[in-house]
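Reading a protein record of the kind used here takes only a little practice. The record below shows the convention in full:
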Amino acid sequence: MISLKVRSYEVGNLIGEAPKFRIYLGHDDGKNVVIKVAKTFEDGDLLIEEASWFNVLRAFIAQVAAMQEELDQIDAHYDWLFANLTSSFLEPTQQDRRINVLEVIDVDFNKLIPLSKLRSQTEIDARSSVWILGRFLKIYNFYELLAASGDNPIVQYANFSPGDYLVGPERHRLIYYNHSGATADVIANTYVMTIAKFMLEWTAVEDDPAEQKYYQLLSNFAAHGRATCKEAHTELYQLVNELWGIQYHPFTYRTQDTSRWKTIKENKEE
């Protein structure tokens, strides 16, 4: 499908593949988009489920933003954390296979990196680990807010899979762009523990006392979880404020099995 045009979408390079669909980088009226194409007509059921999930997220993101504007509160910008589904359709020219089209907001698509790739190739420092962990907990707290807004208090948490995320290191962006399913649960322990273990394995912690305190909290999350992701998020930033203050820290990493640290700063890479 390289160089193919479907409706108004120019389908470009293949950037990923799942058992039932392929993921392409595409363009629509000058904008970069992600285009997911089911491998068969029957495989489209998975993309229907994904489209429904992202539509629910989009509606609630808009609801929260409107409420915050009405209350003159700072915009939480949940729209920066989730890709936006712009279209989902059956395409006759592709044997009626389903296609989902998603875009990301306020970030240069060319500077996004699959989280799974970044994790496999690098180690990150403690303060870079903090902001990624914070984004994860904010995303999962959003699912808690969504449940609290309706009649059913049981939270539908998205299954945790690194392959579902893109990272924009320069601007501290973590973007959920792929739906691998969801699980209803009453408490967040499983998710806090799983995410914390993922971050522990990725983070290189030095002997610095502040980094050791962060490591202790991360280890505690991994061992015991928390009742809600909101609780974990609040506890994390209480510690961060105590240790470093809430401020920008460039993404700091080193290639696996090397010792030289590198940084990616806003508008500058070195």
In short: The chain has a mean pLDDT of 93.
